[in-house]
Amino acid sequence: REEIDEVRVAMTAERKARKIIAVGSGKGGVGKSTLTANLAIALARKGRKVGLVDADIYGPSQPVIFGNQGQKPVAHDEKLVPVASRFGVPMLSMGQLVEPGRAIAWRGPMAAGALTQLLDAHWGDAEILMVDLPPGTGDVQLTMLQKFKPAGAVIVSTPQDLALIDAARAGQLFDQAGVPVIGLVENMAGYACPHCGEVSDPFGKGGVETTAARLELPFLGRIPLDLAIRQGSDRGEPPAATDGPIAEPFLAIADKLDA
Ligand code: ADP
């Protein structure tokens, strides 16, 4: 009995010591999953023990980004064991709980239950859990905020006006729940033409920094729109794991998260 109590205390302490960083966005397709994966890898490169939870029920894309589709987590003592990845970041994804390619149309309680399974898994000595939230402000986000109290949240947006309005709304959700917004990241700004090198801004530029200033939140950095990011993500070779210049913006943002 005493032993059981001791284990319980130890487990609670472990969960408290672990820092959860949630990555959210106002809408889908702005690069939230890409950013979450690459920040986790960048933190691991800096020597931190990091795990990743893919809680995006609508489009769990982390198994593709990590190149470990088909690998299913096993359970031990009724808890999931995270799947290892080539980048030193153990991970669990909603996509590993269902058949690949099947749209997940879970109602609130089921989605919340699945999220709990992913977060209450055997995370061992992980110091930081990066959580890829679904876009917007639904049930999974609420469970995340109320039950697991992240240490902070990162919000990613493209510089487009509509994405920015939604991003501000996502920021409000964290704010109301008492979860500090660590800062905003601008993704897909500045596209260098592979033929002539001219830089254009398909989704505009600077909008996220302006919005961060307006909301009095830190601006964490800018990730360019780069074909190599899309290709690497589809191939299971995330840019942050490479030695190329494309890893740099991710490493720089990871520095700020770790500060
Ligand atoms: P979300 O998680 O917000 O839905 P994803 O991270 O899945 O968005 O990104 C959507 C698509 O855009 C993916 O194909 C991804 O590889 C691509 N992508 C994301 N960020 C960039 C970028 N900076 N440059 C090029 N492609 C990107």
From TrEMBL:
ATP binds at residues 26-33. Binds and transfers iron-sulfur (Fe-S) clusters to target apoproteins. Can hydrolyze ATP. Belongs to the Mrp/NBP35 ATP-binding proteins family. It comes from Erythrobacter mangrovi. Keywords: ATP-binding, Hydrolase, Iron, Iron-sulfur, Metal-binding, Nucleotide-binding. GO terms for biological process: iron-sulfur cluster assembly. One of its GO terms (molecular function) is ATP binding. This is Iron-sulfur cluster carrier protein. The keyword Amino-acid biosynthesis does not apply. Transmembrane segments: none annotated. It comes from the Bacteria. The keyword ATP-binding applies. The lineage of its organism: Bacteria, Pseudomonadati, Pseudomonadota, Alphaproteobacteria, Sphingomonadales. Homodimer.
